[in-house]
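Researcher: Quick test of sequence recovery. Tokens follow.
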């Protein structure tokens, strides 16, 4: 990974503002989640725009041009168009050589995307890959549901992955369990419509995000350390060789519980969810980019990252930052 960038909307909503919408308090949200504020995209703001801004920064910092890109992967669950938004980003960037597609794995999207991108590089098929994690879940939040509306924020993060004589993806472990699908959904609800006699189609709408918070919490705290352990094993690394723990930014209590279970010291944890909330597929690349720009993450550092969420899906990747 040779460059990163991020972009978030200008408008923010703090916990106090949420008390005007639902029966909650700054104290409850802060102590139960660690979140203090989140950025929200305005009606006219698009996922394509946010992703393009983040991508331009990542491409420039990698020292390449959009025309050098072979592949663009957009990890998102909230594209501007259900057919996908990656091609629109390709057009905005004028990355004329790059093939572009969307990848949907909810809050695990960036981690799944990292592994996908690395496979194209490992096979020698592509040299320069742009991976974006972006979501505007505010479009799909039920603003009357205090169990979910306090959590989510909008944003985009991007990284450039480049072929290298030495492989910087050191280990990974990805998992899915569709039997637990119901715990976190943004589901299409069909309404039966008669076209002509005997021909009936389902013409409906997507329903807002619905979550069983307790179950998702339990799942994350149990499963994330397991995949991290497996990824460490496949990388032949011990936990003390890790420089940074960078988890999907869903809840500070989840981050703390995973860190404690793995016995990783607190100073190795990257966390910025207080300012952005849970930005779904964007949370890891936004936090990564901030830590790189602040000079925390340095070339050669070994980072363990893990995503988890709807699907249910979860996974961990261990990688080395820089050239
Ligand atoms: O990115 C996808 C992954 N998603 C996640 O990782 C989410 C995982 N889950 C969580 O982060 C937590 O479950 C939540 C933050 C969503 C909820 O925290 P919790 O500690 O599990 O709270 P709870 O649902 O057990 O609710 C405890 C109490 C309940 O009241 P009673 O029944 O004890 O009287 C809730 O009704 O807190 C109440 N409550 C609230 N109170 C004030 C629930 N939401 C709120 C709220 N403000 N926003």
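Model:
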């Amino acid at each position: 990974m040779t460059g990163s960038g991020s972009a978030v909307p200008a408008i923010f909503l703090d916990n106090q503002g949420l008390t005007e919408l639902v029966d909650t308090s700054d104290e409850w949200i802060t102590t139960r989640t660690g979140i203090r504020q989140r950025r929200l995209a305005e009606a006219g703001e698009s996922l394509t725009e946010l992703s393009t801004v983040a991508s331009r920064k990542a491409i420039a910092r990698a020292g390449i041009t959009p025309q050098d890109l072979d592949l663009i992967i957009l990890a998102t669950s909230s594209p501007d168009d259900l057919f996908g938004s990656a091609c629109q980003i390709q057009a905005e960037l004028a990355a004329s050589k790059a093939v572009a597609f969307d990848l949907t794995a909810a809050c695990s999207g960036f981690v799944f995307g990292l592994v996908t991108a690395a496979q194209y590089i490992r096979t020698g098929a592509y040299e320069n890959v742009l991976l974006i994690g972006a979501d505007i879940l505010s479009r799909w939040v039920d603003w009357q549901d205090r169990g979910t509306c306090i959590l989510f924020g909008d944003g985009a993060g991007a990284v450039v992955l480049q072929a290298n004589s030495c492989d910087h993806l050191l280990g990974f472990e990805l998992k899915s369990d569709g039997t637990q699908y119901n715990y976190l959904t943004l589901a299409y609800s069909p309404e039966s419509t008669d076209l002509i006699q005997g021909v009936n189609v389902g013409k409906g709408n997507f329903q807002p995000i619905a979550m069983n918070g307790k179950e998702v919490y339990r799942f994350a705290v149990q499963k994330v350390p397991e995949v991290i352990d497996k990824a460490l094993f496949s990388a032949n690394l011990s936990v003390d060789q890790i420089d940074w723990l960078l988890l999907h930014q869903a809840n500070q209590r989840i981050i703390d519980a995973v860190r404690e279970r793995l016995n990783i010291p607190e100073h190795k944890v990257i966390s910025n969810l207080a300012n952005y909330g849970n930005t779904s597929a964007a949370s890891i690349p936004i936090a990564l980019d901030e830590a790189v720009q602040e000079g925390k993450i340095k070339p050669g550092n070994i980072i363990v990252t893990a995503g988890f969420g709807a699907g249910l899906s979860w996974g961990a990747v261990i990688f080395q930052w820089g050239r």
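Residues 171 and 233 are 8 Å apart (CA to CA).
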